[in-house]
Write a structure and sequence with these properties.
Length: 353
Amino acid sequence: MNRSRSVPPGGSGAGGTGPGGGGQAQQSVAKLAFGGLLAGGAGKGAAAGGLATVLNTRGGAMIMKSVSIFLASGRRASAVPRDRTAKSGERSQSSDRRGQSGQQQQQQQGGRRDSRRNRKILAKMDELNGKLNPKMLEMYKRRTHFSKIEVEALCKIFRKLVTNASLNSKALAANNAGVIAKAGSSTDGIDRSVFRELLHSTFDIVTEETLMERIFCAWEKGYEGLPIRLEGWILGLSTFLKGSQAEKTAFCFRVYDLNSDGYITKDEMFALLRNCLIKQPQDEDPDEGVKDLVEIALRKLDMDKDGKVSFQDYQEAIAEEPLLLEAFGQCLPSDRSTVSFLSTLQASQEESS
């Protein structure tokens, strides 16, 4: 007796039901389903015909439902690779866009670095030639108390000082076999020896070596002890010749703060005053007189009475008594030399124009 065959939902036929089974699997399932229906109808008697018809009708409905589910799952399975392919393409395009954006950012950053490097090169060339382009000239005018004419004249003086120092160094090396001219001395700026001669002969500053060295080191903040560059030359002279009371106070404090720790201590006062005093032969112990001066200075300048002079102490004391500004030795030019130097700037510029 033949029995009807049915395929359970999700069952497999001869061709397989996986995503790769294709139309061959679907045709096998359909043949089995309809073959079962025909076999079931032919093998039953008349008495059982109604029940067989109902059963076979229900079985056929279940089979058709299974086939529909199978076909739908096949369509979903075939759609997955397409979705994955589309998403993969989108990711690839997004990655390409990010790569292009990264390249653009790198190019922009490289362009900014090149621009900064070019500006530095141009500034260095201006420094070596003692010339300024219009933008740098305007910048120095804003940052200093000088006019454009005075800034241009200071650039020319800087160039002459550096060039003369370089020529003298080479001449000295040529005349003395044991002396070697410093490589690149013409590009380093104004060195100690040139600067000290300038202070003495041009600005009437006559003081001992320690204070001269301190003026040189305090001239350009951040470049202590190094040859003075064009920028430091112009900014330093602005304070030196035309500075406000606050600017000159800050400069003198940096000069007197020998170890740059932010305080003028008793030991620093003693070292500065001891070198400034003229020793008399009849003095038994000249250091005792220096110690007395240190105590007097400390009483005048130490506003918070902590045994040392901070910058705030120094500012308050100078505001009350401006004559204390150079209490530990001369570090600013005389009024006569200031007027003479500024007049020379004006005259030199008028001659060149």
